[in-house]
User: What shape does this take?
Amino acid sequence: MAELYPPIEPYAHGMLDVGDGNRVYWESCGNPEGKPALVLHGGPGAGAGPFWRRLFDPAAYRIVLFDQRGCGRSTPDAADPRTSLDANTTPHLIGDIELLRRHLGIREWLVMGGSWGVTLALAYAEQHPRRVSELVLFSVTNTTRREVEWVTRDMGRIFPEEWARFRDAVPEGERDGSLVDAYARMLADPDPAVRERAAREWCRWEDVHVSTHPGHKPDPRYEDPDFRLRFARLVTHYWRHAGFLEDGALVRDAGKLAGIPGVMIHGRMDISGPPDVAWRLAQVWPDAELVLIGEEGHGLSGDATTEAVLAATDRFRPVRSA
Assistant: This one.
């Protein structure tokens, strides 16, 4: 197994008021005098778990994690159907990142993102390139309309039985339209049974389309009904709006990343997020290295992917004086 850094606990944490009635949980780990590194978790809505802390040398890095709006320990909780998502968009999250950076007195930081966190990291770096020293990205996504259609419809060609169940959970008259829109409507239904079924089926499909690597095990977080509803609400909210980004903007504006060293790590068997997304970005981001990992899939699904992420953070850690 890939050897992660030892488990650590935060040396500081808090709740930051970011406006619109939202307070985001943040924590700092590792060396308070170390090189700042920011973690952007996936989902949207997965939250920043302690595993992320172990991807950095704690003696070298000041590791900052935060739960994006509506999830994890941030408030209000998107698992509550009364929580409005109107002020939960990519521009809001970019603003939260900048507010957190200033709150912590950080001039620039390495930014790590996985899956949805890659989309957010790229959007942030293209808007604030002087605040990003390096980018370490794995399971590269751009959350374009084409990618959303791929995951919610085209993947049915690979998992036909499972996709038919995913589609058939939607009212019959909506099955030929946007499935992400249909699920978002069900997740907002006044009937809690409708919401629960939609959340369960959405998360069941999430577990299927990332299951291409050997030894895949179902995500135990989906057993929690609150997590299911929170996660499904936030994913469908962002996906139905194509990440609240102009379609294709992340690749179009990748020239703004010039001068920012980056490593993109992607599994060749990542059918959920096909490798061509990372490849196209690598063609227009002059300082990026693309690492394609053999037979591994989405996320940190295998040792080689995890080792490549660790190698990237080790490469960018500050040189210790003799």
Residues 93 and 212 are 31 Å apart (CA to CA). The chain has a mean pLDDT of 94.
